[in-house]
Design goal:
The complex is a heterodimer. By secondary structure, chain A is of the alpha+beta class. Chain A contains 12 helices and 11 strands. In chain B, helix 3 runs parallel beside helix 5. Chain B is built from 7 helices and 10 strands. The chains are: A alpha+beta, B alpha/beta. At the A-B interface, helix 1 and helix 9 of A face helix 2 and helix 3 of B. The complex binds adenosine-5'-diphosphate and magnesium ion (MG).
Chain lengths: 399, 217
């Protein structure tokens, strides 16, 4: 074994040029197979967490997807507003753990201004866990025109605790920006730690601020866009959902269900991609096989010499397998590093487009094992050659 | 390894149906230095290969001390070869990808010798190659390459030193120098030295001679 390793390392060194091509092929295949699932997972993690801090999303009736996209991800226009009564009913419902109102309508530099209550900051992924939204700086808002801003808002607008800004009407910056009623300045009281979710680009303010800003529209006063509802138990969730859906004013959406649908679409794409990955990995395995066989004349000489010096067949067998294993392992490790690097870059590009600060990529065992599978696969392709090599007569190449 | 009495009797090697090689019986005490002579194609190299355990004769028996070489299995002959045999091949068979030092180290590693790199350096230095350790074989002259091959063959201190046509690639002066080197090396080890040659001058420089003649089929 030590003889085989010593010899393998030195013969590989001698063939470094050809070897590099094989290593690169394996590395690129590995990276290709991993980048998309890794980036997808980065997006999913931020998005799923944001939808898991509550049980039920209550909005004006309409499309469930639109409800999620608008009130949770701020990527669509809201369906409409609901009477404040819907919120009050939910709040008072027995078994309610938390009802967080959301009122949308204005923006700051394109970032949605989200009116809500302090209960928003009490939301958790699971009852036992610490609050999901953590302040990196400052404190929660206490009075109207206080603002707690998302990590990305702070970064892009260069705002810190104590900074001020003014909002504009509408959910996006647009022509109606000079609306006179919206000019009172907001003061930043806190900055949230990055979550990788949509809240990174939100401006949170007491819901009364939003109501006050829109105060002139008297009948619409104190309307809410959505309620993020959590109950103490499953029964409570279903009771609330039934109650909401029974009225004409609102609908209840299980964000998990909307996600399941979205995921299904995503997974179909992923399945096609996984097929492609297998193909790419297969090509990489072929490259390995090819490199094993193209090196064979030179290897026959090496092997014959080793045998002539007195090395046994098993040493030769081990040598061939080790050379392959070292090549493939080198390629796979390089590929994993490449995949991590590329999904970090890809994640931040995609995150910038979606407006999220994506969590750093994580290489799960499930994903890594896809690539690590190349090592046994490469070894298997090398076995026949290793057997063949161990049977080479030393005399054939020495005379 | 200390050398041992080397004997052969009734030795017949068959390469192909039409090539049968018969060898006269021999008995060479440990430390013998001898030339194997005979015209080209008479089976001199084949004899070395049999003695190295690389080639199994069709019949006959070779003994090295107590060991009946011709009755050993392949793995045992591999072990015999790496422990007891140093073989200087006619074309040297150095590995082009390894340095001079590594080529000798490889032989020692195959033999399972401890401190292989150190001993390889010693062997090469003794053969005046101390300044060439990091060179590749292709960067050396033929004479230097041969000395690397000799260093590899003697570094693990074998009892049996087999040399195939050592002067084939050398001019007269260098051939004589190479022979002196081999005899000194074998003498230092107390090893049996068997040199195949068709060169009369080379044969004359060795105390004993074993002549292989073509056998009519
Ligand atoms: N592997 C082999 N297969 C078939 N014939 C061989 C083989 N090796 C040697 N021979 C034949 O055996 C004879 C002796 O060869 P060899 O031992 O190399 O002789 P020498 O070294 O005296 O020139 C030659 O006729 C040669 O062609
Ligand atoms: Mg010959």
């Amino acid at each position: 074994m030590r003889l085989a390793l010593w010899t393998a390392l030195r013969t590989l060194r001698h063939r470094l040029g050809a070897l590099l091509i094989t290593v690169l092929a394996v590395a690129l295949a590995t990276a290709t197979a991993l980048i998309v699932p890794m980036v997808t997972r980065q997006v999913e993690r931020g998005a799923q967490d944001a939808a898991q801090v509550f049980d039920l999303l209550v909005t004006a009736p309409g499309s469930g997807t639109q409800a999620v996209m608008s009130t949770l991800f701020y990527l669509d226009v809201p369906i409409g507003n609901m009477p404040n009564r819907v919120y009050q009913d939910l709040r008072r419902l027995p078994g309610t753990r938390r009802a967080v109102p959301i009122a949308l309508g204005d923006n700051f530099a394109g970032f949605p201004i989200v009116g809500t209550t302090a209960a928003f900051f009490d939301q958790r992924l699971k009852p036992g866990l610490p609050p999901y939204f953590r302040l990196a700086q400052g404190r929660v808002f206490t009075k109207e025109h206080d603002a707690v801003i998302g990590a990305r808002v702070a970064r892009d607008a260069g705002l810190q605790v104590g900074g001020t800004f003014t909002g504009a009407h509408g959910l996006e910056t647009g022509p109606h920006e000079d609306d006179a009623g919206h000019r009172e300045a907001y003061t930043v009281t806190g900055v949230l730690a990055p979550t990788g979710g949509p809240i990174d680009r939100a401006v949170l303010t007491p819901i009364e601020t939003v109501w006050e800003v829109h105060g002139s529209e008297a009948t619409q006063a104190q309307a809410v866009t959505a309620v993020l509802y959590s109950a103490d138990n499953l029964a409570g969730i279903y009771t609330a959902a039934q109650r909401v859906n029974a009225s004409k004013d609102a609908m209840a959406v299980f964000p998990g269900q909307v996600f399941a649908q979205a995921r299904e679409v995503l997974m179909q794409g992923q399945a096609a991609y996984a097929g492609l990955s297998v193909l790419v990995l297969g090509i990489a395995a072929l490259t390995v096989a090819l490199s094993v066989y193209t090196s064979s004349l030179e290897r026959q000489r090496t092997v014959a010499l080793l045998r002539a010096l007195g090395a046994g067949r098993s040493s030769v067998f081990t040598l061939v397998l080790l050379e392959t294993a070292l090549t493939v392992t080198g390629g796979v490790l390089l590929g994993l590093a490449l995949a991590l690097l590329a999904s970090r870059v890809g994640g931040s590009v995609l995150g910038a487009q979606l407006g999220f600060t994506l969590a750093p990529p994580v290489l799960t065992w499930a994903l890594a094992s896809r690539a690590l599978l190349l090592i046994p696969l490469g070894l298997i392709t090398a076995v026949p050659h290793a057997i063949g090599s161990s049977r080479i007569s030393p005399l054939k190449h020495l005379s | 390894m200390t050398a041992a009495l080397l004997t052969g009797e009734g030795l017949r090697v068959r390469h192909a149906r039409e090539v049968t090689l018969d060898y006269p019986a021999f008995a060479w005490p440990a430390g013998t230095q001898l030339a194997v002579t005979g015209p080209s194609g008479t089976g001199k190299t084949s004899l070395l290969n049999v003695l190295a355990g690389l080639l199994q004769p069709e019949s006959g028996r070779v003994m090295y001390g107590d060991l009946i070489l011709t009755e050993l299995g392949e793995a045992q002959r591999d072990a015999f070869r790496r422990r007891n045999v140093g073989y200087v091949f006619q074309d040297f068979h150095l590995m082009p990808g390894l340095t001079v030092l590594e080529n000798v180290e490889l032989g020692l590693r195959v033999a399972g010798t401890a401190r292989a790199a150190e001993r390889a350096r010693d062997a090469l230095t003794r053969l005046d190659l101390g300044g060439r350790l990091q060179h590749r074989p292709a960067q050396l002259s033929t004479g230097e390459r041969q000395r690397v091959a000799i260093a590899r063959a003697v570094a693990h201190r074998p009892g049996l030193l087999l040399v195939d046509e050592p002067t084939a690639h050398l001019d007269r002066d260098r051939a004589a120098a190479a022979m002196t080197l081999l005899q000194e090396a074998a003498g230092g080890l107390g090893a049996t030295l068997i040199v195949v040659t068709h060169d009369e001058a080379v044969a004359a420089s060795l105390p004993l001679r074993y002549h292989v003649t073509p056998v009519p089929a």
